[in-house]
Amino acid sequence: QVQLIESGGGLVQAGGSLRLSCAASGGTFSNYAMGWFRQAPGKERESVAAISQRGATTYYADSVKGRFTISRDNAKNTVYLQMNSLKPEDTAVYYCAADRGVVITLNPSRYDYWGQGTQVTVSS
Fold this sequence. Notes:
seven-stranded mixed sheet, four-stranded antiparallel sheet, mainly beta, 11 strands, 0% helix, 124 residues
């Protein structure tokens, strides 16, 4: 069983930056592909980014390409989401998730373990 704890959310003005962290425990972190997802009030959960087990491959949703960067540090059992040029439409609860599968994906139904989420609010 993998436990995931997100941190780093907060309130930021449009155009600003935040870095989210997700610390994992209870499993072999490097065995899991990792993803970030978000959910705004009244909306469905949306894929944001994913990274392969060793970090060699990354995927991004079109809405965040060029602004967000996913990375991981397997020695620290942590995955990060650097968010730059934030927009009010990025406001959401952000979740990290772990996938035991071999092929990384942005499909949230493929992910096995989820964190509790961290709130990101971008003011205009």
